[in-house]
Amino acid sequence: MAKAGHIVQAGRGRYDVAAIVPRYCEHLRKLALGRGGEPAIAAATKERARLAKAQADMVKIKCRVLQGALLDAEAVERQWSSILSMVRAGMPAVPSRASQRSTSHAIRRLGDRRRDQGRADGAGSGQASMMVCGSLSCCGINRIAMGSTVP
């Protein structure tokens, strides 16, 4: 660098820093011009800024994952697929289960009405007349005898 004139010696092993800095900066500018000049420098600066932002974003994401605020999308998809497979497998059994439950629900309702009717009669004879509307189809029973006595 001293032979090329970029560094000025003030003596043996000594250098004039005040003269060296401007000359060295000029040397670097000339090198940059050979590589594209100011547009190349501006593009490189933008690229470094973009890289720094991407790295900062990755650090934020890793922190959120470690905190438990973010989940792995593939793991979530696998879990939901498993849940939906179980639901899909259970769907064919829904009609039979619903009819069983609605029938047992209707029987419980009839038993409750029988007890309530017996208390209302106050007879204590163990027999109560049961008046039920004829359309308990919502409970799975289509026809119930109206006014019959229940032992």
Give a verbal description of the structure.
With 151 residues, this protein is mostly helical. It has 2 domains: 9-91, no CATH class; 97-150, no CATH class. It has 4 helices and 4 strands. The strands form 2 sheets. It has a two-stranded antiparallel ribbon. Helix 1 (17-34) crosses helix 2. The protein is rod-shaped, with a radius of gyration of 45 Å. Mean pLDDT is 74; it is low at 124-151.
In order across it, which strands form the biggest sheet? 1-2
Q: Judging from the principal axes of the Cα atoms, what is the shape?
A: rod-shaped
Distance between the termini: 118 Å
Number of domains: 2
Low-pLDDT regions: 124-151
Query: What structural category do the secondary elements indicate?
Result: mainly alpha
Q: What do the pLDDT scores average to?
A: 74
Number of strands: 4
H/I helix tally = 4
**Secondary-structure element sequence?**
EEHHHHEE
What does the largest sheet look like?
2 strands, antiparallel
Rg, rounded, reads 45 Å
Report the sheet-strand fraction: 5-15%
Q: Kindly state the percentage of residues in helix.
A: 55-70%
